[in-house]
Amino acid sequence: MNAPSRRKFRREGEDRRRQDLIEATLDSVAEYGLQGATLRTIALRAGVTAGLIRHYFPGKEELLQAAYAALVGRMTEQAKAALAMEDASPRRRLAAFVTANLSTPIIDARVFSLWATFIGRANADPTLAHAHREGYLGFRNEVEAVVAEVLAAEQRKPDASQLRHHAIAINALIDGLWIEGCLAGEMFAPGELAAIGIRAVEAELGLAPERGEQ
């Protein structure tokens, strides 16, 4: 077996060094799986000693948990960036949010493989399960907030239970299309999944097609 390629472990601050180790962990998990991603392989990938890893993380479990939290956080932040569009209507911001979730770099076979690998362990690891729950709820809260803005612009005032219902449904729609795109992206035309997602989300919210739409 070929030795893993080494990352250049930067001589920078503590946070940067921790991040380098997390990136090396994600690389190792992607290549070797959770069992094969030992502290030794992670250390080799990062170009450090296993002893140095323990300066930043008590052990492999804590390093894996940090890596999963970083993966989920990165996916969420990339999608949330679409909500920061200036001078855009709430409906356009929602469409951009859906599009961001159904486009690269979030739709990516490696990202899906890593996510699925960690999720497969969540039932046996309460800390990973907690990280997954927090990531899910954080994402759903973002969806609820933008949906509330969209419906307010439509002169509609949904209550908390209705917003929750919409957010759960929209999250499920996005998740399903995301999985399809990650596993079989070559089957879809550029932008096709995003267009399907936007129409499905607008139908869930009962929005009439905008002028010019079919």
UniProtKB/TrEMBL annotation:
Top-level taxonomic group: Bacteria
Pfam families in UniProt: TetR_C_6, TetR_N
DNA-binding region: 38-57
Keyword Aminoacyl-tRNA synthetase: no
Domain HTH tetR-type: 15-75
Keyword field: DNA-binding, Repressor, Transcription, Transcription regulation
Family annotation (SUPFAM superfamilies): Homeodomain-like (SSF46689), Tetracyclin repressor-like, C-terminal domain (SSF48498)
Matches recorded under Gene3D superfamilies: Tetracycline Repressor, domain 2 (1.10.357.10)
Record's keyword annotation contains Signal: no
PANTHER family noted in UniProt: HTH-TYPE TRANSCRIPTIONAL REGULATOR RUTR, TRANSCRIPTIONAL REGULATOR-RELATED
Protein name as annotated: TetR family transcriptional regulator C-terminal domain-containing protein
Organism name: Mesorhizobium abyssinicae
